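User: quick one, fold this
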Amino acid sequence: MILVVDDTDYIRKLIKEILKDENIEIDEAANGQEAIDKVISERKKYDLILIDIMMPVLDGMETTKQIRDLTEVPIIFLTALSDEKSQVMAYDYGADGYITKPFSKEVIRSVVKRYVFKSGVSKRYGTLEINKKSGEVISSEKKLKLSIKEREILFYLEENRGLVKTREEILLSIWGYDFDGTDRVVDKQITRLRRKLGENEKYLKTIKSIGYKFDE
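Assistant:
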């Protein structure tokens, strides 16, 4: 889950629009105090916080300082302040990154991929749930017993959703440079993985003579 903290409605809506196809839950706060209250709440557990600096009630700097006393969740500033002093101060207060406005869709998606997807946020595709943090894969309400390689292949393909990955790329990512076997081992693992996914094997697409991709 991502918490977007900005006193401008447009910015909060823009972030949601940019990430609408990423299967990520997004929470909002219009000022720093509201953000802190949400973080304190036991019901709100975030994987990333995107926060503005210039806000009413409590600015982004002080908000970040107080949040740092509560959690180590990654915090990225989204601000119109581009001067070096503000950037240095942001990092001193505990920020993990600093993005100046206006920002591009690609920058936001890149940050999310780095801080959220890598951290293992739970993602859903119909009745398939993938949680990299816990390592759990649930298909049609059934927790699957996957081998290490099956799990790693699924996570790798899902992380690169929509992109075709060759057998060689999968081998390099999962088995490493020193693997001296045939690339057909990938096919065998995919076959086993599909069998376990049941109806959700539809998300694993075979690209003839090339490789595989995860797609809806």
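User: anything notable?
Assistant: The mean pLDDT is 89.
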